[in-house]
């Protein structure tokens, strides 16, 4: 970290209570940004106060909130701030975070925001390329099913659009649904059943492989995605791997931070 500069990048994540996943996802994204922007000081913050408090109690591991990180930057004499979220969509969580940062705008000379992972159709194509590269040995008879989070925000339509885009980019055997919105697991079971795959791989379309991946996706309860596909008669293999583990996805966050830096010039 360059201690002399008054320029900083604040990397903002939702957070996770799964240490192993944190180390290979959130921390790797932060490290890639640190490596790419050595003329900036790098700070981090999480938006989930619930997860922050779990880690503090359980592991005595402290992560600052967005507010705490900004206060620290003021103390450290930072004047120009780029905020790079590791969120996937510009939804509720990202909007609340932006409002919180902008409440500090009088304390800095410049503030710019990097976009979340999927901000436009170019991002979508790039993300599809990044994830399908990781599954290049997927057979045409096999299905790859991604579990997205989903949101009540209108931006949720990105998931259905992405599913369509996989198909249009010659990946007819790749599907994406969400835990908390549409497309649902019931939609997916119908869609995947009509494809009749020889085997199904399920994996998170989330930055970390946390609770949703371990429980909603790969858990033992009858509601889990693995169990629902098995009940539909398929052989299912869960892959507990967050998007933050994919080099191509991490590279996108670095590029988004670079764009935000360029916008300040």
TrEMBL record:
Query: Which keywords label this protein?
Result: Cobalt, Lyase, Metal-binding
Give the top-level enzyme category.
Answer: lyase
User: What InterPro entries does its record include?
Assistant: Anaerobic_Co-chelatase
Q: Which GO terms describe its biological process?
A: anaerobic cobalamin biosynthetic process
Name the residues that bind Co(2+). 149, 180, 212
Q: Where does the chain cross the membrane?
A: none
The active-site annotation reads: 149
UniProt EC number: 4.99.1.3
Domain of life, source organism = Bacteria
Name of this protein: Sirohydrochlorin cobaltochelatase
Entry's Gene Ontology molecular function annotations: metal ion binding; sirohydrochlorin cobaltochelatase activity
């Amino acid at each position: 970290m360059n201690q002399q500069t008054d320029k900083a990048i604040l990397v903002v994540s939702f957070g996770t209570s799964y240490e192993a996943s944190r180390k290979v996802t959130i921390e790797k994204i932060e490290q890639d940004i640190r490596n790419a922007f050595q003329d900036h000081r790098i700070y981090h913050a999480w938006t989930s106060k619930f997860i922050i408090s779990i880690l503090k109690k359980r592991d005595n591991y402290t992560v600052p909130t967005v507010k705490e990180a900004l206060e620290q930057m003021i103390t450290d004499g930072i004047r120009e701030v780029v905020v790079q979220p590791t969120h996937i969509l510009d939804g509720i969580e990202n909007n609340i975070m932006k409002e919180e940062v902008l409440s500090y705008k009088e304390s800095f000379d410049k503030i710019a925001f990097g976009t979340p992972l999927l901000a436009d159709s170019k991002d979508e194509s790039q993300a599809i390329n990044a994830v399908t590269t990781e599954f290049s040995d997927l057979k045409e008879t096999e299905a790859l099913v991604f579990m997205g989070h989903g949101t009540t925000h209108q931006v949720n339509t990105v998931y259905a659009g992405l599913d369509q885009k996989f198909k249009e980019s010659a990946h007819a055997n790749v599907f994406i649904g969400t835990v908390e919105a549409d497309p649902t697991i019931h939609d997916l079971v119908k869609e995947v059943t009509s494809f009749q795959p020889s085997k199904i791989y399920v994996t998170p379309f989330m930055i970390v492989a946390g609770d949703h991946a371990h429980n909603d996706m790969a858990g033992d309860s009858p509601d889990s995605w693995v169990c629902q596909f098995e009940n539909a008669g398929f052989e299912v293999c869960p892959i507990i791997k967050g998007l933050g583990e994919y080099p191509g996805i991490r590279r996108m966050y670095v590029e988004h931070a670079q764009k935000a830096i360029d916008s300040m010039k």
